[in-house]
Amino acid sequence: MSEEIRVMDAGTHLTISTAHRQLLFFQGDRSPRQFPVAVGKPSTPTPPGDYTIVNKIMNPGGMLGTRWMGLSIPNGVYGIHGTSNPASIGTYASAGCIRMYNHDVEQVFPLVVIGTPVHITGGPLSSNNPSTKPAAGDGGKTYTVQPGDTLWQISLRFGVSLDALIQANNLANPDILQSGQIINIP
Length: 186
Description:
The chain is built from four helices and eleven strands; from the N terminus they run αββββββββαββααβ. The chain is globular and about 45 Å long. By secondary structure, the protein is α+β, with helices and mostly antiparallel strands.
């Protein structure tokens, strides 16, 4: 059996949200593991689409950090890799690659084989769907933001779309949450 078939059978795949600068690692029936990433800056964006891992390199050196996983993106060399600039994680900073903290990419690297599917989503969040905003007094839940929480984590925890959370809370900048802030869960 080829490695690609084993990957598909196990359900291993990666999903990267450039809008939220997050990588989700899915393996079988387990809940996905979530990692913060840096993605392409506006002048050199990370291309959205469906790709696969085509090569892997340990200790590529320099700004690529401790691991490299090349992607099948045409017309360029793109990959998921560590970084020598950890302060860039969570930002739009790369030339199109996906940067991870070295300790995070070292966790994912041995679990990913050549042929692993990678789905990259792009574009801004849409906040023009009024049907996702709860009506006043609808009995929705609330959540108190804890240190280190992100809106993406809260959305996954409660099974609610990011757009719905943004609208329900009138968040001007969904990337900034304060510890102790009360979030309405629609």
